[in-house]
Amino acid sequence: MFAFPDQETVKKVVENLPRVGVGVKYGLPQSRKTSLMSPRQLFKHSDMPQKWQRREITNFDYLMFLNTIAGRTYNDLNQYPIFPWVLANYSSEKLDLGEASNFRDLSKPIGALSENRRKYFQDRFNSWEDESIPPFHYGTHYSTQAFTLNWLFRVEPFTTYFLNLQSGKFDHSDRLFHSLSDAWEHCQRDTHDVKELIPELFYMPEMFYNSNGFDLGKRDDGIPVNNVVLPPWASTPEEFVLIHRQALESDLVSCQLNQWIDLIFGYKQRGPEAVRATNVFYYLTYEGSTNLNAIENPQLKEGLQQQILNFGQTPVQLMTDPHPPRHSIMTISPLMFQPCNDDLCMLMKFISNSAIVHISANTYPQVTQPTVISISQNLVFALNKWNNSYTQVSSQASSALGSSLADKNLDPNHAELPMTVDPLLAVGNPSQPLPKRHLGDAFDQRLHITWSNFVTTVDSKSIIACGYPDYSFRVIDAENASVRQVVYGHGDVVTCLARSEASLYADFYVASGSLDCTVVLWHFSSQNQAIAGEYNMIGETPAPRAILTGHDAEITAICVSAEHGVVISGSKDGTVLMHTTQGDLLRRIVCADLTKHGRTTLPSVTNILMNRDCNLAVFYGHEFVATFTSTGRQLNRPAHKSIEKVLCATMSRCGEYLVVGTENGRISIVRLFPLQMLYTFPQTDSPTRCVAISTNQRFILGGLESGAIVVFNVDFNKWHFEYKQRYSHR
């Protein structure tokens, strides 16, 4: 983060930077004009509010969006992102997320949740007599540096920052954050405590552990405060974070979150509406309350700056009208709870009979031509047209899968199915399709071709393939199979590829792993459809962004996240390493279970998946799967042993479910935490070599050894904590 002295300097910097914008994922142009927009303009021109209303993004993601454009950042403890208290029950043995009394009233500020407190603060406001300072309800704030550090002081670097703030000592044990129940109760009775929460309480269990070895002492009642006391309904920090996140995403929060947004970012933040809502803070907390640049007296200026630091800072006001509510789930999907009696949607068979080893479901509705790219073992690929207007139709499933598959085999001209075969590969086409649909040179004979030899761009313009005997990987034009780039960066055959999260038209990372035991990180330019050079100019020689070392065996699996700035890699000897995208080794992740019971070596790492909360699923060999936090702590003990040989896996967009394909031709859905088999689709007639999920999360696609693609209907809401009861009653 760069903090410049004035707006003129900011303009000069933006003029000299590439057109970076503020994030294509917000639906804003990647332009210098966007970079210079005010927070209110960013909110007005973004499509995020509409996405949130339509339930296309989570409550968490929307709150992060609002915080970001309103000037809140992880890089400034005084302007840290703000999240709401959502629960009001931290004492029960069990927590029912369908019971309204367990939730906080989001239409009121923390200071006005009870009538007594509301009256106390209103009396203060109405009786204020100091003419030099405007009246206020609250002399403290819901977000300050001290509050942020008190939440996070158990983890670095916040431990060091906290000690610096406290003159090298921890505060009195009773004043340290030590219990969620006590923290909530304190907010209800102490007139100096109106703090809200921070995002970490919804995704980072490590903040509840004292991992630094400091003795934090005991409370006055003798209870140690080294670790945070959790509510009775959560047995571990991981379980608390899971349930807390579920509460944030629940319908009871969704239906009133817009009212909390009005208080923090909207029309009730200041002015007469803030007075009516009992939501006025000390005047120096508001943007524009004083012009520090106009103050010439250095002592006075320093004093005001310190007051602002101590009192906290209110976010930039984003709107002056009420924020629209989120649509109900029944409004968005009125047929959501109507069961689809037929798992099978369709089967599409290619004439080559070559195994389908890779599928990319590039089915974004915003692209001109949504496409499912399939790649066969013979290196022939297909650009299969996807129809996003297709809707699932309930039908009576056939008694045997064999007859269902036969009945739903694809006629290329069939208009009632979601996928249409690539016309160049359709049956009876007189043209010669292979030159325009073949990836070129054969792969190294030592390699077993799998789904991890390929990645694609989300607009289906390029396929990136590895495994060539000249130690390269290649960027191939999907339209005509011409080679755009031959990229060299390894001393042996490239064995696997991975791509970071990618939005439409945005750049992303590509990571390549090799027999030479290294992982190399590259920058892919979507504008140029090529691996970028040092300066991201057309025609430059591709340049690595980082070379990651530490493995002693062939790289077999990679996962890369630009959002979190990490690369996780696995090798043939079972080693899993986590690096930063700058190339620094963070940690080695060890599955202790698999080294016990006389096992001298670990199985090869075959797949690594990571969700938005940085929870990892690591597949060892074709039998074992273990889950870890990003700090390397194993969540499931012992590692789960599959009864079938797992060949492939992917993760749902929400990060709660794994979709796995097996050698026996089955595709199953597994809950990530805790690891639990939820559902298995009807068995197919050959091994499942690859799996993918459509962008709308309504279809699962499986590539089969027999040269076919099977498409199953899926509704992940069936296993969602909030809706599973409605499904079970059908």
Question: What does this 3D model show about the protein?
Answer:
- Pfam families: Beach, NBCH_WD40.
- WD repeats lie at residues 548-576.
- InterPro entries: BEACH_dom, BEACH_dom_sf, BEACH_Domain, NBCH_WD40, WD40/YVTN_repeat-like_dom_sf, WD40_repeat_dom_sf, WD40_rpt.
- The chain is an alpha+beta fold and 730 residues long.
- It is 18% helix and 21% strand.
- The strands form seven sheets. Strands 10, 11, 12, 13 and 14 form a five-stranded antiparallel beta sheet that branches.
- A hairpin with a 5-residue loop joins strand 8 and strand 9.
- The two termini are 52 Å apart.
Q: How many β strands by DSSP? A: 29
Give the low-confidence spans: 393-415
Alpha carbon gap, first and last residue: 52 Å
| Average of per-residue pLDDT values | 89
Radius of gyration, whole Å: 28 Å
Describe the largest sheet: 5 strands, antiparallel
Tell me the fraction of residues in β-strands, as a range.
Answer: 15-25%
Helix share, percent: 10-25%
Shape: globular
Which structural category fits the helices and strands?
alpha+beta
WD repeats: 548-576
GO cellular component, one term: membrane
GO molecular function: protein kinase binding
Domain BEACH: 37-326
Which keywords apply here?
730 residues; alpha+beta; five-stranded antiparallel β-sheet; four-stranded antiparallel β-sheet; 21% strand; WD repeat
